[in-house]
Write a structure and sequence with these properties.
Blueprint (H helix, E strand, L loop, with lengths): L2 H8 L2 E9 L5 E4 L5 E4 L7 E9 L3 E11 L25 H18 L10 E2 L10 E8 L5 E7 L2 E7 L9 H13 L12 E9 L2 E7 L16 E7 L7 E5 L3 E4 L2 E4 L10 H15 L5 E5 L7 H6 L3 E6 L2 H8 L6 E5 L2 H8 L4 E4 L10 H7 L4 E6 L2 H11 L3 E9 L9 E8 L2
Parallel strand pairs: 3-5, 6-21, 11-12, 16-17, 16-19, 17-18, 19-20
Antiparallel strand pairs: 1-2, 1-4, 2-3, 4-5, 7-8, 7-10, 8-9, 10-11, 12-13, 14-15, 20-22, 21-22
Helix pairs in contact: 2-9
Length: 430
């Protein structure tokens, strides 16, 4: 196919019947010539007219032109930016249907990647389908002629940013209000923010206020014009040449997690859905059991689980590489909790043997060194909290040499998106 034919094929329209949903939230359909097409903003059961935008040898991407016959589970998305914004790829589906497909994502990954015989898990619903996020990150770009856009990346066009004012339906009310106040205060050309063409602005609500973290720009920003904003309790800056943020102004925000109020530095990871995260925490602690003994809380963050385990009589070694999270985890730490700062792959062997290992890695999953170590030096039980079914499945396959997958459950911490949180329990077989 020459360039002209390829261009014609990319712009071709077709009528398709959407038969499934991909793990990215895009509808899956078959083009007339048999090629699989992924089409965002479609739902299983839709009959739709689509236009091919990108073509590969085995699959294609297409854009929704018109829904000819909607699926029974299709709903009108309430967000006015939905057609352009890439943030909520499942908002056009009824919430019960979103949950059903998330359970399928988990089972499909474990079956296809992990080669494990599992059934689709139930997915625990979030208490709120909207206005549940305590943290949002916005991208700010300075364009020509002094123009500034700030918001979220566009659907299928990550180089573009959709300008967001108060339209987004995901943040908790304090975060939404703080965003609008920040936009009003940053001045022409956003001159009251650090210099630079691209910045990332993260707002997070906590006990008594909202914290702002600015990523990017050069050092020396004083935030003088923003310091008096009533909507913000503290402002942090991580210049483009720095690994860690520093506090520019204000008192570090405090967060209420697990019944405790803890000081939290800018940039420290916490779950974005506080109510659903509490349900998840209770489930994880039930899966741990009540026997007590030696435990490792790997990727422990602020000690979300380790602090509770220590209070229940476990002797816990928490391992975390983020210095700010370690400081929070050590704050008024209960007896029996010891925090080790550094990568899990470097320090896990020092913490073994143990009766229990809690794993809560980032989306990339476990370092390749960790599953063989856990097989070689087995523990009684592993509880693995995952935010990506694909990397969980990969790691589950690696752990299968020494462990059985005994239980799996899923939680919806991210309504309107394809993301799902999964808890897997592995019990020793050797």
């Amino acid at each position: 196919m020459d360039r002209h034919d390829a261009a014609a094929a990319r712009g071709k329209q077709a009528v398709v019947r959407v038969r499934a949903l991909s793990s990215s939230g895009a509808g899956v359909a078959d083009l007339p010539e048999g090629l699989v097409a992924f089409v965002h903003r479609t739902a299983p059961g839709d009959e739709a007219r689509v236009r091919v935008t990108r073509r590969h040898r085995r699959w294609a991407q297409a854009r929704l032109e018109e829904v000819l016959q909607p699926a029974p589970t299709r709903v009108d998305p309430p967000c006015p930016l939905y057609d352009r914004c890439g943030g909520c790829t499942m908002q056009h589906m009824a919430y019960d249907e979103q949950l059903r497909w998330k359970g399928r994502f988990v089972a499909d990954a474990l079956q296809r990647i992990g080669h494990l015989d599992v059934e689709e898990p139930d997915v625990r619903a979030s208490q709120h389908a909207f206005h549940y996020r305590n943290r949002l990150t916005f991208t700010l770009r300075r364009l020509r002629a002094g123009r500034v856009v700030a918001g979220f990346h566009a659907l299928d066009e990550p180089a573009w940013v959709v300008d967001v004012h108060g339209e987004c339906l995901l943040p908790e009310e304090p975060v939404g209000q703080a965003w609008q106040a920040l936009r009003a205060a940053w001045g022409p050309e956003a001159r009251h923010l650090p210099s630079g063409g691209n910045l990332r602005l993260t707002l997070r609500s906590g006990t008594g206020g909202v914290s702002l973290l600015v990523d990017g720009g050069s050092r020396g920003w004083e935030a003088t014009e923003l310091a008096s904003l009533d909507a913000l309790t503290d402002i942090w800056h991580r210049p483009e040449d720095a690994e860690r943020p520093y506090r520019v102004v204000g008192t570090p925000m405090k967060e209420l997690w697990g019944g405790e109020i803890l000081p939290v530095a800018g940039g420290v990871f916490l779950q974005v859905n506080r109510e659903a995260a509490e349900v998840l925490r209770e489930y994880v602690l039930d899966e741990v059991g009540s026997e007590g003994g030696e435990a490792v809380d790997a990727y422990c963050g602020v000690g979300f689980y380790g602090r509770d385990l220590a209070r229940r009589g476990w002797r816990v070694t928490g391992i975390e590489m983020d210095a700010g999270a370690c400081a929070t985890a050590r704050h008024d730490a209960p007896p029996g909790l010891d925090i080790v700062e550094g990568p899990v792959e470097r320090h896990l062997s020092e913490a073994l043997p143990a009766d229990l290992v809690l794993l809560n890695p980032p989306r990339t999953g476990l370092d390749a060194l960790i599953p063989p170590l856990l097989v070689e030096r087995p523990v009684r039980r592993i509880v693995y909290v995952s935010c990506d079914p694909a990397t969980l499945a990969r790691d589950a396959a690696r752990l299968s040499a020494g462990y059985d997958l005994s239980a799996i459950h899923a939680f919806d911490l991210f309504p309107q998106t394809p993301h799902v949180e999964t808890v897997a329990r592995f019990d020793r077989t050797i």
